[in-house]
Amino acid sequence: MIRIEVRGLGKSFPFQGATIEAVSGVSFAIAKGEFVALLGPSGCGKSTVLNMIATLLRPTAGEIYIDGERSRPDRPHPNVGYVFQRDTLFPWRTVADNVGYGLELKGIRRAERVERVAACLAQAGLEHFGTAYPSALSGGMRQRAALMRTLVVEPQILLMDEPFGALDTHTKIDMHEVLLNIWDREQQTVLFVTHDLAEALTLADRIILLSARPGRVKDSFEIDFPRPRDAVTLRETPRYAELFSQVWHSLGEEFMRGRRP
Amino acid sequence: MTSLRHNLALFGWQMVIVLSVLVVWQWAFELHRRMPALIPDLFDPYFISKPSEIFDQFLVLSCLKTRMGDWTLATPDGFSRCLARFDNNLWFATWVTLKNTFYGFITGVSSGFVLGLLLGRSRRLGEIFQPSITAVNSIPRIALAPIIVLAFGIGDTSKVVTSWVCVVFMVFYNVFAGARSVDEGFMNAARLLGASEWQITRTVVIPSTMAWLFASLTPAIANALIGVIVGEFIGAEHGIGRLIIESEARGEASGMMVAVLILMVIGVILSTLIWRLQAYLLRWQAETGRGVE
């Protein structure tokens, strides 16, 4: 069953009188429960693709289907959760109130909210920080809370826009473990945008490689590591090195192309 | 321990400054009269009175002493008779001024807040009203006071309206700027979690505008008081502003000084209250910059 499908997706922006093509003719389909990484050099339009699927941006060409239904601009799909590049926790709410925000919007009563929030906080190792304000938390903890704010409403499709891009390597691997744990249990359909190949290999079933601007689908790689995966030991296996160099070669070409003006 | 000693020293120095001002105020002119060659003509009590006179005047205006110098509390009904005879006594004048300031402040802040939110969030309304608001805002508010008193009479209403005029624009501009600068990321996060436009306004726009609103409240309370006092100058039966005008007519600097000092105390108390309220409502800001790791 196909959950996300994009056909001939394109986006151009007006820029200083000219038109810049950010994304052009992007087509792919993601099956239910599949974890797909959208990989590409900086500025290749991978976040633009994701934001169009999330209805944050309006495509200038092509179509998007969620669960076979054509997605309408400005009308977020209730089954889709989104995790931002920088954490967008509300600084005026405590961590628990941030995580419970989506439930509050749905009008779920307090007792159930408290219970579900507590379960989410425990999953993210934040059980002692529910009453703290986000400003008191470290970057990694904030991003975990932001992830839980998205997951608490149990979306079946997850769109993630370089959610761990601002974290240091160790915190990032911690986050990978948290995410893999959750995914092993919930089996959401995930589209994960990143420029970090190691991250894509650790997490994804499949990597879709975008070319330098204008972004087009250049290549697709099946990542066949067995599940459940261990984010740390995975990197020491020979298969990891093999896949890494295979994708790296293709990605490297785009880095070089992207550098030229 | 050091912090206690530090605070004591601080308090000591502050007291020294206050006392020396009082001492100079009280005796400088006296000394000048005795030794004109040595001490310059500093403070003429005709214009600025002096602490002892101000204190006496305070007792008289607050009905604690009669003009003859007798304590009203010495006789059973002296105090209440004085209050009844002297209808703009300090207690009643303070009450009237405070009440009108409060109403002016509350109406000004709430209407400024709603207006700022509406015009800040609706691009179209903002564009339509921007020129007229800029035009009205460039009128010195005080210039409207005589018109307002003419229109609303010398009762409390005109004071509340003057006060409102002095508050509303300041709050409006702050909230307007705040509503315009709400973080897009917060709005998108709410929208993608399924928030309706009204839910976004309630849970994202209003909380993130609060800091801007509070930034305007301390000057707003000061302006509310200014509005009431000016309204009372133009025409009133009661109030601290009225007390100042009456004292001026009698050429009594001490009465004016009592009124000014009372206004100072009111101003300090009101801004402290706002500051407390702000510290509580914006407590999430206080933790900024503290990390756990």
Tell me about this structure:
The complex is a heterodimer of chains A (261) and B (293). Chain A is of the alpha/beta class and 261 residues long. Chain A folds into 2 domains: 182 residues, P-loop containing nucleotide triphosphate hydrolases (Rossmann fold, 3-Layer(aba) Sandwich); 66 residues, no CATH class. Chain A is 35% helix and 26% strand. Chain A contains 8 helices and 10 strands. In chain A, the strands form 2 sheets. Chain A has a 6-stranded mixed β-sheet with strand order 6-7-8-3-9-10, with helices on both faces. In chain A, strands 2-1-4-5 form a 4-stranded antiparallel β-sheet. Chain A is globular and about 55 Å long. The longest helix of chain B is centred in the last third of the chain and has 38 residues. In chain B, helix 3 packs across helix 12. With 293 residues, chain B is mostly helical. Chain B has 2 domains: 43 residues, no CATH class; 202 residues, Orthogonal Bundle (MetI-like fold), CATH 1.10.3720. Classes of the chains: A alpha/beta (261), B mainly alpha (293). The interface between A and B is medium-sized, with 31 and 28 residues.
Descriptors for this entry?
heterodimer, A: 261 residues, alpha/beta, Rossmann fold, 2 domains, six-stranded mixed beta sheet, four-stranded antiparallel beta sheet, 8 helices, B: 293 residues, mainly alpha, MetI-like fold, 13 helices, 77% helix, globular, disordered C terminus
Query: Kindly state the mean pLDDT of chain A as a whole number?
Result: 91
Q: What is the domain tally of chain A? A: 2
Give the CATH H-level superfamily of the largest domain in chain A. P-loop containing nucleotide triphosphate hydrolases
Helix content of chain A: 25-40%
Query: Can you identify the CATH superfamily of the largest domain in chain B?
Result: MetI-like
- CATH first level of the largest domain in chain B: which class? Mainly Alpha
Rg from Cα of chain A: 19 Å
Tell me the series of helices and strands of chain B, N- to C-terminal.
HHHHHHHHHHHHH
CATH domain topology of the largest domain in chain B: MetI-like fold
How many extended strands of chain A? 10
* Structural classification of chain B: mainly alpha
Query: Distance N terminus to C terminus of chain B?
Result: 30 Å
| Name given to the CATH architecture of the largest domain in chain A | 3-Layer(aba) Sandwich
Biggest sheet descriptor of chain B: none
Counting structural domains of chain B, the number is 2
Percent helix of chain B, as a range, is over 70%
Low-confidence stretches of chain B: 288-293
